[in-house]
Amino acid sequence: MNEAIIQVQHLSHIYAAKQATALRRPALLDINLEIARSSCAAIIGVTGSGKSTLVQHFNGLLLPTSGTVIVDGIEVGASKADLPKLRQQVGLLFQFPEAQLFEKTVYADVAFGPQRLHLSRQEMRVRVIQALASVGLPHATYAQRSPFELSGGQRRRVALAGVLAMRPTILVLDEPGVGLDAEGREEFYKHIRALKQEGITVILVSHDMAEVAALADQLFVLHQGSLVMQGVPRTIFAQTALLHDYGLAPPPLSMLLTLLRQRGLDVPVEIATVEDAFTFLTR
Fold first, then answer.
1. 56: closest CA among 39, 76, 40?
2. Alpha carbon of 219 to those of 32, 232, 280: distances in Å?
3. Closest C-alpha to 169, from 93, 75, 89, 114
C-alpha cells in the first residue's frame, strides 16, 4: 500500500449548539484512520453516522474540535494552515452535482473554477480540454453544447470535469452513482477508475455496497460517529452479522459467496468481482 495522503488521529467533532458542551453528542468521536495515496477509499454507514462530517474535515470546511487531520502535509486545524491551497487539492463532488450546472455551455461550466484562480486564458483552456477528455467528453464535440441538452450521466461527468479542472490530488465523491441508470453508473465508474490510475486519490461516501465493492481498495465503516470497522472490502463484507448490527448489508455477490462458503464450497477469499466468481464457478 502507498504512503498515507490523509492521516486522522483522535479526531472528534461537536457541532456548535445552544446547550452546554457536556450535553452535546459528538458527531465524530476519536476517529483514527489513514488513507493511502492513489487509492480508492470508501466511507460507509447509515444516515447520521458521521460520513459527511468526516470528509468535510479533509478540505477544511469543518475544523476538528479535538485531534488532528493532516492532508498531504497540511494540518487542517493549524493556525497557519493554507486552507485555500488545501481546497484546490481536495475536490468535492456532492450528490446530484449536475443540478449545480448553470452556464450556457459545457466549456463555460468547466472553466468556472479555473477562472477564479486567475489563470491565463491559454492555461485555462488547456485545463478545460484535459478535464473534458478525462471524463470522456471530447472538447471538439461537447464544449459548445448546452449542459442541459445532455443525458444525466453526461451532465454528472461535466460536473466532475469542473472539479478536475482545478487539478486536485484528492477527489471526494458523495454517492457518485445515485440517480443514474445502470449504463450511466458504469460509465461514471469507468472514469473514476481511470482517475485513480492517473494517481488521484478517490474517496467515496456511499450507501451502495455494490458500488463500494466495484471501486474501493480500502473501506471504513462509521456508526454513531465512531469508526467501527476498517480494512479491505472483501474482508469487511465477509462479516455479515457485524455489518447487520450497524444497519448495513454486504453487496449481493458477497452474500452469495458467504452462503456458498457456509455450505462447504471452498471459495477463495480473493474472489471479489462478478467476473472472478463466474470464472471460479464455471471452471
1. 76
2. 13, 6, 25
3. 89
The C-alpha cell at 231 is 480494512
Orientation angle between helical segments 252-262 and 274-281, nearest 10 degrees = 30
- The whole-angstrom separation of Cα 136 and Cα 179 is 20
- Using an 8 Å Cβ cutoff, are 159 and 100 in contact? yes
Instruction: Decide: pTM greater than 0.85.
Output: yes
Cβ contacts of 18 within 8 Å, gap of 6 or more: none
Give the sheet arrangement for strand 218-223, strand by strand: 90-93, 170-174, 201-205, 40-44, 218-223, 226-231
Element at 10 (helix H, strand E):
strand 4-13
Q: What's the rounded Cα separation, in Å, for the pair 71 and 73? A: 5
Greatest Cα-to-Cα distance within the chain, rounded to the nearest angstrom: 64
Strand 218-223 to strand 66-71: parallel, antiparallel, or no bridges (unpaired)? Answer: unpaired
Residues 198-230: tens digit of each pLDDT: 999 999 998 888 889 889 999 999 999 999 999
Cβ-count burial 245-274 (b if 16+ within 10 Å, e if not):
ebebebbebbeebbebeeeeeebeeebbee
DSSP 72: T
Asked if residues 43 and 208 have their Cβ atoms less than 8 Å apart, the reply is no
Which region holds residue 141: left if phi is over 0, alpha if psi is between -120 and 50, else beta? Answer: alpha
Length of the chain: 283
Residue type, 8: V
- How many alpha carbons fall within 13 Å on the CB side of residue 159? 24
Report the C-alpha gap between 192 and 130 in whole angstroms: 15
pLDDT in tens, 40-92: 999 999 999 999 999 999 999 999 999 999 999 999 989 888 998 999 999 99
